[in-house]
Structure formats: structure tokens, C-alpha cells
Design a protein that fits this description.
- By secondary structure, the protein is of the alpha/beta class.
- It folds into 2 domains: about 180 residues, NAD(P)-binding Rossmann-like Domain (Rossmann fold); about 80 residues, N-(1-d-carboxylethyl)-l-norvaline Dehydrogenase, domain 2 (Orthogonal Bundle).
- About 45% of the residues lie in helices and about 15% in strands.
- It contains 11 helices and 8 strands.
- It has an 8-stranded mixed beta sheet, with helices on both faces.
- It is globular, with a radius of gyration of 19 Å.
């Protein structure tokens, strides 16, 4: 059975995208962030993306309006108490995610699923923060959430079979194609994607080809929707560098070690789209 009410913690890029997808699919959403400015900014971005859908003829104005009406915003964690599932989309710091789940466990009902949108951290370690680890699962969405169809479901040793079944049903209900992977560092998607991205950066560093030509090689030659360097800009060089460091350490594999060029760009504030410059200028 799918979830009726979805809580989302974090109104940033991934959080507002998850809220958008769920509301569009007919579910009630409670979107939380730490202050009004952030939740309102998230709601504005959802509205703007829904407007684009109307402009392109993919949505009717009535669908847009109904979706917005299904989203409630809050700065009080207690307002998540009635949710069937709460997805955290906060920054990639283990202690932050653990602390959040500790706070949520006594607030939500005993049957509420606690889902983490982490792209690389151990779901089992996140689950250690709560008494009932069977309710914790990884739900790794992809940006932009309302367009990308993949949902990578990550199970750890204590994830309950019922939890997995409910999350799979939810994924289908919000229009996602689900894959299930075990709780290994980087899962399936980050492990492959980050490895490719680091090698692409090394190729730029070595002068093999320009960033644009390397990206075209993967888009035109391998039918990737976006090249690895453009994707790095979209995710953020600082975010991808942190993931690379984590995977290099956890897997003992130097292929994930951030190249010197990446470290230099991050130190210079060239973080990609969010800073206006990365491998491309914005």
C-alpha cells in the first residue's frame, strides 16, 4: 500500500523536487525546513517548475493548482507527526542525518517509514540513531526529481520486508522505476557515476580533451543524457569531492580520489552552477 501523507525534511534542490513529485502524484506533503525563508523558497521553485509543465502542455492549470494545494510548509518538526513516510534531504553529513532521525522517531507513528535520500552514506549507520532500524531505508532520488524516473532503494541488514514493499509501492505510485541495491558505499549509481566523473576530471587535467568534448563523447557516443563534467557542475564540485573522498576511503579505491584540479577549483570557489562557474560558466 502506498503512502498517503509524505513528510520531506529539507526544502533545497532534492527536497523540493521530492515534494513536487509526490504532490503531483496526488499525495499530501508536509515540507519542512529550519526557517520560513527556506520553505517559502522551496515552494516557489515547485510552483515555477509546475508552471513550466503547464507552458509545455504536460500539465493542466488545474493539475498545477491541485498539486500546490497538497503541499503544506512548516518549520516545526512536530508537524510531521501524521506522515506515513518522512524523507530526509539534508546535507550529506552522517551526524546531521542521525540527529534528525533521533528527533523524528518519537514524533512520528510506529508505522512511519524513515527514508534517507543520501547518495553515498551508509544507511545502516544512519539507522543506528533509532531504536527500530527496520523502518529505515534509503530512497535515493535523482535531480530534477519531477523529471528523472529512477528511484534507487537502498536496504541495509535490518530493513524490514514490509518497509521495502511499502517503499516500492510508493515509488510506483509517484511514477518512478525502482531498483533495489544493498547498503554498500556509493550504492550502484553514485559508485559508477562518481568514478566516471573523477576520470573525466583527470582527462581535463591531463589535457586529453576539453570539458565540452569529453561530455559530448559520453552524450553522443554512449547516449548519456548529460556529460560527466556538466553533471558535476549540476551536483556541485564540493559535494562530489566530498563523496569521492568518502568512497575512496571506504572502498580503498584510488579511482574515487578527487583529482588535484578538482581540489583547486573547489578552493577557488568554482563549484558549478550554484557559484556561476565550474567546468562551464553560467
Amino acid at each position: 500500500m502506498s503512502f498517503r501523507t509524505v513528510g520531506v525534511v529539507g526544502a533545497g534542490t532534492m527536497g523540493h523536487g521530492i515534494a513536487h513529485a509526490c504532490a503531483l502524484a496526488g499525495q499530501s506533503v508536509v515540507l519542512f525546513d529550519v526557517d520560513n525563508a527556506r520553505v517559502e523558497a522551496g515552494l516557489r521553485k515547485i510552483a515555477a517548475n509546475l508552471d513550466k509543465g503547464v507552458e509545455k502542455g504536460k500539465l493542466s492549470p488545474a493539475q498545477r493548482d491541485a498539486s500546490i494545494a497538497r503541499i503544506a510548509v512548516t518549520t516545526a518538526l512536530g508537524d510531521l507527526g501524521g506522515c506515513d513516510v518522512v524523507v530526509e534531504a539534508v546535507p550529506e553529513r552522517l551526524e546531521l542525518k542521525q540527529d534528525l532521525f533521533r528527533q523524528l522517531e518519537p514524533i512520528v507513528g510506529a508505522d512511519c517509514v524513515l527514508a534517507t535520500n543520501t547518495s553515498s552514506l551508509s544507511v545502516a549507520r544512519i539507522a543506528q540513531a533509532v531504536a527500530d532500524g527496520s523502518r529505515v531505508i534509503g530512497t535515493h532520488f535523482f535531480n530534477p526529481v519531477h523529471i528523472m524516473t529512477l528511484l534507487e532503494i537502498v536496504v541495509h541488514g535490518a530493513t524490514g520486508a514490509t518497509t521495502l514493499d511499502r517503499v516500492r509501492a510508493w515509488g510506483v505510485a509517484i511514477g518512478k522505476e525502482c531498483i533495489t541495491v544493498q547498503d554498500f558505499p556509493g550504492f550502484a549509481t553514485s559508485r559508477l557515476g562518481v568514478c566516471l566523473g573523477m576520470e573525466a576530471i583527470r582527462m581535463v587535467e591531463q589535457g586529453v580533451a576539453s570539458a565540452d568534448d569529453i561530455d559530448k563523447a559520453m552524450v553522443l557516443g554512449y547516449r548519456h543524457p548529460v556529460g560527466p563534467l556538466k553533471l558535476t557542475d549540476m551536483v556541485g564540485l564540493d559535494v562530489r569531492m566530498a563523496i569521492g573522498e568518502y568512497l575512496a576511503r571506504e572502498l580503498g579505491n584510488p579511482a574515487f580520489e578527487p583529482p588535484a584540479l578538482m581540489r583547486k577549483m573547489v578552493a577557488e570557489g568554482k563549484l558549478g552552477q550554484k557559484s556561476g562557474e565550474g567546468f562551464y560558466k553560467y
